Every structure is written in C-alpha cells, then in structure tokens.
Amino acid sequence: MQLAFIDVAVIVCYILATIVIGFWISAKASKNIRSYFLGGNKLKWYTLGLSNASGMFDISGTMWMVYLLFVYGLTSVYIPWLWPVFNQIFMMVFLSVWLRRSGVLTGAEWITFRFGDGLGARLSHLIVVLFALVNVVGFLAYGFIGIGKFASVFLPWELSPDPTTNDIYYGLIITALTTVYVVKGGMFSVVFTEVLQFFIMTFACVAVGIIAMQQVSPDMLAAVVPDNWASIGFGWNLDMDWSGILQSANEKIVADGYEPFTIFFMLMLTSGILKSLMGPPPNYDMQRVLSARSPTEAAKMSGFVNVVLLFPRYMLIAGLTILALVYFMDDLRAMGPDVDFEQILPFAMREFVPPGLLGLLIAGLLAAFMSTFAATTNAAPAYVVNDIYKRYFKPEGDDKNYVIASYIVSVLFVVLGVLIGLFVPSLNSIIMWIVSAFYGAYTASNVLKWFWWRFNGVGYFCGMAAGVVILLIIQVLQWMLDVTFMQVYAFPFIFGGCLIACVIGSLLSKPDDMEVLKAFYIKVRPWGFWGPVYEAAKQEHPELERNRHCARDWGNIAVGIVWQTSMTASAIFMVIQHWQEFVISLLVVAASSMYLWKFWWCTLEDHPKDTPAQYLPRA
After folding, report:
1. How far is CA 190 from CA 34, 541, 548, 558, 562, in A?
2. Per-residue pLDDT tens digits for 269-325
3. Nearest to 460 by CA among 95, 122, 109
C-alpha cells in the first residue's frame, strides 16, 4: 500500500510514543512484584477499563465479525456469544467483586486461597499455571504471525523480496518494540500504552463508520443483500438466501453448521452462561480485575469495558461490511468458492480512507495487535515468577530479584512464541486446538469452585484432566472419521463428562480444610451451596449473614445481556442508517441502563458490612 508522508509520520510517532511511555513510567513498575504485575493496585477503574477494552480489540476477531455481519446480517450479533462475549456482564454483576475480594496476585494463587495447600490443591495450582502458560505461548505465537502479516500488507517498506520472509521481518521488529515497553514498564506500561492505543483505535473506528455512512445509502445496501439481512430476529432457521447475489455465501452458511439456528442459539446460550459462570481465564482480563483498587472498582471496570468497546468497534465492523457489500461484491464473486473476506479491510482502506486518516487507521489497527500482544506478555511472568519461582524456589527473595526475574521470563516467553510462530506451519489449527482443549476442560471445574463447598482440589484437578482427555478423544475421532465437530454441539458431552469427574473426585477424597473454606467464604461471600461452611463460620462470627442476592444478580445478568446486545445493534443500525431501529435500540439501552443503575451500580459493596476486621484488606 502506497502511503503519503503524513501517514508514515503518524505511524512513526505512534510507535515512538508507546516506547517513550514504557520507559517514562518504568520506575513505578519496578518497586515490587505487585507494582509490576498489578500496578500496585493504584490504577483507577476507568483507566483499567480502557486498557482492558484495548486488549480485547483483537483485529483478527474484528475481521471474523466483519465476515459474520456480511453473511448473516444483524443476526450475527448473537454469534459472538460462542466466546462468550457476555462474560463481561457476569463479571460486572458479581464475579469481579468476588475475585477481587480475594486480594491475590494471580489466578493460580487464587486456587491456593480457595483449596488450601494439600495435595489436591497443589495439583490444581500446577494445572492452572500450565493452562495459563500454554494460553500465553499460543497467543504470543498467533500474535507474532498476525502482526507480521498485517504490517507487510499495510506498511510501505519491502524488507525482503520474499513475502514470507517479509512477514517474518516485520513480525520480529514489531514484536521487539512491543516487548521493550512491556518488559520495562510492567502493568503500568501496558495500561497506559493501551489507553493511548484505545483512543487511536476509537477515532479510527468512528472515522470508518462515518465514511461508510457517506458512501453507502440504505437503498444501495438493500439492493445487494437478502431481504431479511437487516432483521435482528430469527425463526427456526435463518432463511438467509444469497442466491443470485453471492452463491458462495450460501455455501459458507451450510459449512458453518449454524442451521437450524434456534438449536444452535440455545446451545450457544447455554454454553455461554456456563463459561461465563466460571469467571475469567488466567489471562490479561483476570489481571485487570486483580489490579483494581477495590472490589467495587473491579466491577465498574468490567461494566465500563462494554460501554467503551462495543459501539466504536461495531462502527468499524459495520462500516467495513457495507463498503464491501456495495463496492467489493464483484471482486468477491470473482473469487468463486474461495472467497477471502480478509481482503475487505485493505480494499476499504485503500479506496475510501484519505491521507492522514489512513496513517491513523493503520496505527490504530497496529495498536489492536500490539495491545493484545502486550497484555498477553505481561501475564506470563506473573505465573512463572509468583506461582513457581517465588513459591517453590526462592520464597524469601527481595522485590528487585523478582522484578528482574520477570524481565527474563517475559523475554523468554516472547522468544518461545516467536519460535513457534516461525517453525509451526499450521499454527492456527494446532495452537487454537490446544487453547480450545484447555478452555473446554476449564469450565466445569471453575463453575463448581464458586458455588459448592464440598468441591475440593482433587475434584478440580480431576475435572480439568478429564476435559483434556475427552477433547483429545474427540480430536482422534475427527481424524479417524475425517469430519469436523463444532465444539458448541460437543459442549454438553464435554461439560457432562467433566462434571462427573469433578463430583466423583471430590466425593472420593477428603473435604478441604474447614478453616480454609471458612476464610474463603467469609472474605468472598458467594451465594450457592455453602450451608455447612456458613454454619461453621457463624459459630465464630454470629453476625455473619448469607449472600441472599442470587435472584437480584440473575436479574441484572438478564438485563445486562439485553443492554450489551442493544449497544451492539445500535451501532450497526446507525451505520446502515436504519433510524427507526436505531432509536428503538437506544431506548432499550437507556431503559436497561436505568435498571442496572438501580439494581447493580447502587448495590455494589467492597465487602459485606458484617465481614470481621481480620478478613478485610489492610489500609
């Protein structure tokens, strides 16, 4: 892509700014490991929210959602529930508060807080560390490949005549620059650079949305899409017929396996709820929650992510989609069955974005890669240094030693991720399978840990191990039968098998130490099946009250999902200029916001008022 001087200047200024910020605030990060990993719990909730939103703005995921909106129309707002996108609603309603009340440094340390220090707890602790590190390496490798391919397409310098080598050179350069400011500045650096990146990305998203609104009228759009493309409702089937417009889209719908859509929707919703109930996986999202100044600020941070991320991101998604539908359709038809929807992004940028703004948009998309990469890199040393090195090898080390060890671990994990990216040709299928397997294994164990007192460390380990075994069996069956199973359809069997392993493992082993369970219950105060622990704790602290807010929390979750989906839909309706639907969606957002203000925001509390003083954080 040929860039004007002003575009190149904008990109260079952005890269220099991120590095300067990392070095400028590195003194704050190097005080101790809590400062390095969690920013010393001094970062404000809205700053962490902007940072978390920036880290979630993955450009690969964004391009996937462009494809979904292109093919499935407004119905596509539900499909990201597979992730599940509404886990942030569960987080903001109660899970962020519960997690932050623990006061731990990492997700693996939380396992010790919940299960104690017996054999089962140690096995659980190690398997969570393993999960976290596999997750980190996989996404670092994925990010390295993605950054290289992105940069070689959009940046004007040809570093090598061979396209593959060019990708590698760009990947190495941008990875090295990102690693410098992450390693030097820790969480402070990650957060403040991601805030800068968020504003750049948001400006770029809004600009693309406005350009699309200027270039594509509702009549132009209606002429190139099926009749119900702009409908957010659905029946038993999608009834999305692209015949005579883009036949390959019909073939893609069949290949995706989303029909009948109602069954797919219910499975997606069920698996999404269960995956959301387990809380955040041990990655950058969990680190943001643990970095918050207080439990209520952790909840506000999770809610704020929805507000600042969804609308601008979907302005970009909708803008790119309708530009492609109207102006890129002939090129897509010419591709036949091998339609490459990733070509939508460079096409729209090349044809419609003016100089100056083009440089800012490239910087914004580059920021999307770098922010996710940076947040992932910051998660690795938290687990290696705090949960392995400090716990098992040097428990009495000084803070400077731990920070230096964190520098080394960060660099080593980046190098490992890069090496995997260089030498594994089928990166996406292999790494994403590993991550998917661990996530599938992760659900049952991490739902029960919050809600059942008898669930112990042995049960947790059995559930995680059973999940990996079941998913490996599924993979072998796919290879033998030469078929592909969608994980959402296999999820009930995976979850059921893991749940049985959790229950059997727990009941065939001793309960966890009651003192550990009482400390957990008094400090976190979850609702669920905690009767024996509550009664034991009440003998020592007669003033204790149960958490009786289960019904209120579920009401907030239901309204929160409607609130989140309405914000997503409103951005699309605005860009496609369906003003009546846009106004209706805004009214739904306003009404649900008022409900959440009264029944969620105004009811937040750091700790219950009856919490004994010894369980409260020290001032």
Report:
1. 14, 42, 38, 33, 31
2. 888 899 899 888 766 677 788 889 999 999 999 999 999 999 999 999 999 899 989
3. 122
Yes or no: say if 359 and 3 are a contact pair by the CB < 8 Å rule: yes
Q: Is 43 helix (H, G, I), strand (E, B) or coil?
A: strand
The residue-averaged pLDDT of 483-494 equals 69
271-304 as b/e: b if 16+ CB within 10 A = bbbbbbbbbbbbbbbbbbbbbbbbbbbbbbbbbb
CA quadruple 243, 248, 251, 252: dihedral sign:
negative
How far is Cα 123 from Cα 23, in angstroms, rounded to an integer?
Answer: 38
Six-digit token string for 450: 């919050």
Q: Is the CB of residue 145 less than 8 Å from the CB of residue 171?
A: yes
Q: CA 273, 563, 232 angle in degrees (round to 5)? A: 85
Cβ-based neighbour number of residue 505 at 10 Å: 22
| Residue from 338, 269, 350 nearest 1 by CA | 350
- What is residue 292's DSSP assignment? B
The Cα–Cα gap between 149 and 11 comes to 17
Tokens of 278: 């387990």
pTM of the model: 0.85
Determine the pLDDT at residue 430: 46
Distance CA 560, CA 600 (A): 10
Tell me: cis bond preceding 260? Omega within 30 of 0 counts: yes
> Is the dihedral angle over the CA atoms 528, 533, 539, 544 positive or is it negative?
negative
